Amino acid sequence: xxxxxxxxxxxxxxxxxxxxxxxxxxxxxxxxxxxxxxxxxxxxxxxxxxxxxxxxxxxxxxxxxxxxxxxxxxxxxxxxxxxxxxxxxxxxxxxxxxxxxxxxxxxxxxxxxxxxxxxxxxxxxxxxxxxxxxxxxxxxxxxxxxxxxxxxxxxxxxxxxxxxxxxxxxxxxxxxxxxxxxxxxxxxxxxxxxxxxxxxxxxxxxxxxxxxxxxxxxxxxxxxxxxxxxxxxxxxxxxxxxxxxxxxxxxxxxxxxxxxxxxxxxxxxxxxxxxxxxxxxxxxxxxxxxxxxxxxxxxxxxxxxxxxxxxxxxxxxxxxxxxxxxxxxxxxxxxxxxxxxxxxxxxxxxxxxxxxxxxxxxxxxxxxxxxxxxxxxxxxxxxxxxxxxxxxxxxxxxxxxxxxxxxxxxxxxxxxxxxxxxxxxxxxxxxxxxxxxxxxxxxxxxxxxxxxxxxxxxxxxxxxxxxxxxxxxxxxxxxxxxxxxxxxxxxxxxxx
Length: 496
Description:
The protein contains 20 helices and three strands.
């Protein structure tokens, strides 16, 4: 973009800080739950409003920049924010779904009388500040710092229950995420710093213009891909199913609002802003990344079929769906890249619905196993109807939003002549049908043996049900009203 298309504004900073500044208020009013939760909602509304305020500027072709610090610890790289089409798309998704997740959290923690609710809301707020920091990062160093901040902020949420299982999952979570980021992503970042003489600002077409050779390029790309292991690519994925011991709103945060989306977002940033499509294509790096992601798509879907625990089945589903985005970024087609960026939004809305449904079922019945949910749809019709709609979106069937992103992914793979990847996407969608649709079917249509559910079961509290109704409605709405999302992705395609 031209220099006159750049707006210098502190709006990105305030959008990041909005939830962080709520933390003192949450702590001060920790014994007044209505005030504590009111502060949570108010900060979320402010954050969302600031993000929405920036959308028209970005849609008009402007880039918003703000430099907080010109250098860190003698490193001549600024702590800088830069809001473009991809960043604002991710920020809209994260900030809007956080509001709904906060409402859902209130209903969930109150219904189950969860302990340490103040700590829960504090780290929820910090996590969303880190997420927007990643979304608006203007360079690789800023991205990395907020990425690590998010790992540390979400660890107390994963270990919320403080039992043996939670502590074990927390160790796995932190070891995997910090171990891969320090062991792979940080050395890759240092290499880029040395190779470019300190220039790590994301650029249209990438900033890594030096000829690094095909072998070095493949190694560097894989170090970034595995270093940002929040993306869940195999073999660095086991932290994700293990984290399902956390409360369901945390699972929703991990799988839709933040964390895993941060992982794939970082890889998209590396592809478009560090390497650039031309360099990746010239070095033949995309093929390697695409097939690692494809392996993850198929294997995770097969594992999902074997899981009886609903949250674990959804966790393995997430692993596969995330790799769709990486496949799209690896194909080097405008259509596939558009599909990858759109899938950040469409999968987020669908998957948060599925996890909210899982939590509502647990709140109302105490049931976690899919085999225990036969006939439940008759007693919880709203919850299972929302689950069905979100399942259609994950599968990629019209009239749901998931169809739009998967359609572009398939078209992009065909456009690039990658017919094998088209086959992978189709097989994966068939597996999606196999591990999702029977859940809703058995909930509404019990087996012929007359298996019935417990009596006295009804829908979960309204604060749990209302958010999943809204997000399931969004799965349908974004099928018809997606022009603004496509326009944001087009801005990235025109400048890649």
